[in-house]
Design goal:
By secondary structure, the protein is mainly α. The chain is built from 22 helices and six strands. It has a four-stranded antiparallel sheet with strand order 4-3-2-5. A two-stranded antiparallel ribbon has the order 1-6. Helix 6 crosses helix 13. It is found in: Cell membrane.
Length: about 500
Amino acid sequence: MSEKKSFKFPSAFSILFIILILAVVLTWIIPAGSYSKLVYNSAANQFVVKTYQKEDQYLPATKESLEQLNIKIDLNNFTEGTIRKPIAIPGSYQRVEQNPKQPQDIAISMVKGTIEAADVMVFIFVLGGMIGVINRTGAFNAGLSALAKRTKGNEFFVVFSVCVLMAIGGTTCGIEEEAVAFYPILVPVFLALGYDAIVCVGAIFLASSMGTAFSTINPFSVVIASNAAGIQFTEGIVFRTIGLVLGSACVIAYLYWYCKKIKAQPSFSYTYDSREEFFNRYMTNYDPTTELAFNTRRKIILSIFCIAFPIMIWGVMAGGWWFPQMAASFLTLTILIMFISRLGEQEIIDAFTHGASELVGVSLIIGLARGVNLVLDESMISDTILAYMSDLVSGMPITAFILAQLGVFIILGLFVPSSSGLAVLSMPIMAPLADAVGIPRHMVVSAYNWGQYAMLFLAPTGLVLVTLQMLHIPFDRWVKFVLPMIGVLLTIGSILLIVQVQLYT
């Protein structure tokens, strides 16, 4: 009698492939539609109104033009470059010719999505190569041994510190995408301290996402959403700050509970069955019984590696950097490390290519996720979903309206996983609905933040599967771990929205 096979949850690749097929099916079911979009042409200092299958309309870049289009956004937000993406024009939605995708478009979108994600993929390859070179020098091994000695008995302090830094990074500059760079260095640290893969994701992805959900001054979400809503981003910042403190405290408390559990009983770990494979992958060069000297050269190498991250954050926030510039900065520092390492030429090349090759799967996941987004965009169903949702919530009683907005942005977050993209698409449509029920527009901005990120904790088209693939964590284990925190986010968000309704009505 044959042994019955146990069910194994699909991999990240299979999940995204299934979602891609479902996206193609949806293009046959959901009607196609489009809002007219407003684009600012900085070279000509004029507005361009783009409407589906119509000639572009050119308007002077003036306040009067914005009023004519019923767009309540400060002109400076366009002329100073704060808003660069096309803005949906209220009241301009129209049904358009259906553009369903065919079976052959599945493979085409996968290829096109990978091409579009080339900048992110290069960044990841450079990061992997950098890690490979540093591993070959023994710097990580020596540093981990030193850290394990210093933190013995206070291991959770490292988790606490990383959570605080990630939450601050999330609320100030939305550091989630850039946080991919932190896994290769912090994962071995957490493993050396006796924790598992879930703790790594919790301290980095979960904490940074909670910080981004309760963004205070993040230019890529709350600032651009407020500008698109026609208000100052400082409106509602007190409530967002309260949410940030509460949400971050809950993440830290949850991780403390989980860390205490797996320290007392390792089998409690949600990834216990894959612990050996995970440890072998990330701790190949780490042997706690063989202590490498943490000499000056290795300290310098680790210092250069650590310097890469504040440089990256500064570049994104102040220098206008994106993935090509970040990749170039990491590559520059990698070359510097190569010279300091005193490794042979062939040894350096082998280490770099081996490190980069280990992240090929992660890079392909990014391309596949982009392919899903391409299918939804090209079939023009995202605007239809937005139009339907705006009609659904308009005219509701105040409390029901703002909680419904929270639910609307949960759904929209699945179809438009980009925070800035969803902001410029939805805010000109959703924010004016707040005027009709007599509440401030910043409440809709808050609902956008909290609802969208509740979905992005799970949305396969966002960063979740990239992270899980990098750490080889099955999606079902992540769902089990993160659901309580999604409940916390939505509970805190709902209470804060209801409190604001009471205050402003």
